[in-house]
From TrEMBL:
<comment type="pathway">
    <text>Cell wall biogenesis; peptidoglycan biosynthesis.</text>
</comment>
<feature type="region of interest" description="Disordered">
    <location>
        <begin position="287"/>
        <end position="328"/>
    </location>
</feature>
<feature type="active site" description="Nucleophile">
    <location>
        <position position="148"/>
    </location>
</feature>
<dbReference type="GO" id="GO:0071555">
    <property type="term" value="P:cell wall organization"/>
</dbReference>
<keyword id="KW-0573">Peptidoglycan synthesis</keyword>
<comment type="similarity">
    <text>Belongs to the YkuD family.</text>
</comment>
<protein>
    <submittedName>
        <fullName>Murein L,D-transpeptidase</fullName>
    </submittedName>
</protein>
<dbReference type="InterPro" id="IPR005490">
    <property type="entry name" value="LD_TPept_cat_dom"/>
</dbReference>
<dbReference type="GO" id="GO:0008360">
    <property type="term" value="P:regulation of cell shape"/>
</dbReference>
<feature type="active site" description="Proton donor/acceptor">
    <location>
        <position position="140"/>
    </location>
</feature>
<keyword id="KW-0808">Transferase</keyword>
<dbReference type="InterPro" id="IPR038063">
    <property type="entry name" value="Transpep_catalytic_dom"/>
</dbReference>
<dbReference type="GO" id="GO:0009252">
    <property type="term" value="P:peptidoglycan biosynthetic process"/>
</dbReference>
<dbReference type="GO" id="GO:0016740">
    <property type="term" value="F:transferase activity"/>
</dbReference>
<feature type="domain" description="L,D-TPase catalytic">
    <location>
        <begin position="48"/>
        <end position="179"/>
    </location>
</feature>
<dbReference type="GO" id="GO:0004180">
    <property type="term" value="F:carboxypeptidase activity"/>
</dbReference>
<keyword id="KW-0133">Cell shape</keyword>
Length: 328
């Protein structure tokens, strides 16, 4: 029976079930982090946006401050994600999703077998229309993934508490933006020949809107793609696969300037003598700060005992995968 449960989890995604319940979901936000919020003119009840970067194996929490704009609160190293760069398209492909998702209170799981978790809501409306399938794609604790984003238990407990308080404060749902890598001109150039490049260019439009405005972009679906901060004649499009209806041009000059600058930067990188290295993973990735700890402790102990203060955040060029760090 245990083998069947494990096999089901590997096929379906990071399924969350539990046999016992404690108060881990009610843990307060750590006092140190509340203090950081206060310094930055934020409160625990203010809305949040979460951004995920696969290649760098990092998760960011952004929080709205008194100006109405979002500011980076904290960056967390991810202990494990599975698959490769690119969107999830089918059940059992072990792919961690990429795209824009919205997480409501009902999608928080206090009873996860992976300590705590929240469901990303994959597939979203666009992905469903494209025929993508899969279920139970989570951000959770532990250090093991079958298509999810795994933090340590300590890491997910802190993120869960911040998200919970934002939802209690009146945010209907928080946005999760999941990207293949940091959307720089160099990274776009490095991946110019990838079959997913057009998809990533579409994701970059939403990324850049947030980067420039520090406001959460609205997300629509039409023309088989995401459309951000758009106003359509006749209202919101109903069919994500149909051509986009006419829309008002609401593009911010600063966003257009960033797009043009990044295009020039990408062209310069492609024209230069820089040799871009291939991705050096076989299945997913792990933040470099966890590697030595993994060898010393093993995945199970690492998931339970890692203190966030032990894990410095860096900006690595890539998070190299360890083919032995997953117990799926």
């Amino acid at each position: 029976m245990v083998v069947l449960i494990a096999l089901s989890a590997a096929i379906s995604g990071c399924v969350s079930t539990v046999l016992e319940v404690d108060n881990k979901s009610g843990q307060p936000i750590p006092a140190k982090l509340v203090g950081e919020m206060s310094k930055r003119k934020m409160s625990p009840a203010d809305p949040v946006v979460i951004r995920i970067f696969k290649e760098e194996s990092e998760l960011e929490i952004w929080k709205r401050d008194r100006t109405g704009r979002y500011a980076l609160l904290k960056t967390y190293p991810m202990c494990r994600w599975s698959g490769k760069l690119g969107p999830k398209t089918k059940n059992g492909d072990r792919q961690a999703p990429e795209g824009f998702y919205h997480v409501s209170a009902g999608m928080l799981n206090p009873n996860s077998q992976y300590y705590l978790s929240f469901n990303l809501g994959y597939p979203n409306r666009l992905e469903s229309a494209l025929g993508y399938d899969g279920e139970a794609l989570m951000v959770h604790g532990a250090c093991s993934s079958s298509g999810c984003y795994a933090l340590t238990d300590a890491g997910v407990a802190e993120i869960y508490a911040v998200a919970r308080e934002a939802l209690k404060g009146g945010q209907t749902a928080f946005q999760v933006q999941a990207f293949p890598f940091r959307m720089t001109a160099e990274n776009m150039a490095k991946n110019r020949g990838d079959p997913n490049f057009d998809f990533w260019t579409n994701l970059k439009q939403g990324h850049d809107l947030f980067e420039v405005s520090k406001r959460q972009p609205t997300v629509s679906y039409c023309g088989r793609r995401y459309v951000f901060d758009a106003e359509f004649e006749g209202g919101e499009p109903r069919d994500p696969l149909a051509s986009c209806p006419p829309q008002l041009n609401l593009e911010q000059p600063a966003v257009a300037a960033k797009r043009d600058a990044d295009l020039r930067g990408m062209e310069a990188a492609l024209a230069g003598d820089v040799t871009f290295s291939a991705h050096a993973y076989s299945d997913g990735g792990m933040h470099p700060s966890f590697r030595n700890q993994l060898k010393k402790r093993g995945a199970e102990e690492l998931a339970k005992k890692t203190s966030l203060s032990e894990v410095p955040i860096s900006r690595p060029d890539a998070a190299l995968a360890d083919p032995h760090n997953s117990d799926e």
